[in-house]
Amino acid sequence: MEKYSVSGCIVTYNNADKIEKTVASVLEETKGVEFKLFVVDNGSTDGTIELIKEKFPQVTVIDTKKNLGFGAGHNKVLEFLTSKYHVVINPDIFLKEDVITELSQYADRDETIGLLSPQIRFEDGRLQQLGKRNPTIKYLGSHRFHKGDKPSKTMIEYCMLDMPRDKPFEITNATGCFMFFRTSVFKEIGGFDERFFMYLEDCDITRRVSQKYKALHYPMADVYHRWERESKRNKKLLMIHIHSIIKYFLKWGLR
Fold first, then answer.
1. Domains of the chain (ranges, CATH numbers)
2. Banded pLDDT at 1 (limits 50, 70, 90)
């Protein structure tokens, strides 16, 4: 079986317009570790699979033939992982530095770390205000209807924006756009809960990791996210988001 110290997975569904930049940046910037990248395609019809195979023959493509959702798509690689660490990567992410090696080196220092979440920024470098505490109705409502760059008091609390940016700190909610797992932990908890088709599966898995291991925000490493917040504009995605919120609170309660 192929040996590599870090694996990564991108789940894609009709992302041919952006995934080339994502894959290229991840492969080009990840230099300090043996790295293996998987792309799980959820039934794309826009030529995504053909693009990946032509441009990046070193990438392993898994074609599910249908849209399984975010978490179930990522779980498709569980049986193939022999790595020490595994990275969940969105198809709208790109890197400017060797973040994966930096996170690997930090995780090597403490075997109780189960999950690391780097600093997520917009393409222009602005900080993305993403939840780091367990979601509540108050937090989710504030996050959804917030406008402008100046965070509210609730947003500061939810996103832990008052924490120092020069050292890691514990969180119970990491964004799914880029999640760095200890592979043994990712496997131990069974990956993502597939009841969540899309949205809040990242909150759920962080919460499960943090019950037994450390889940940390690592603000010294930057990852760039072409965040479009599609559920604010797309009614179908909005309904999926609402269903995920209901499932989350039925599972965890309102706290």
1. 6-252 (3.90.550.10)
2. very low
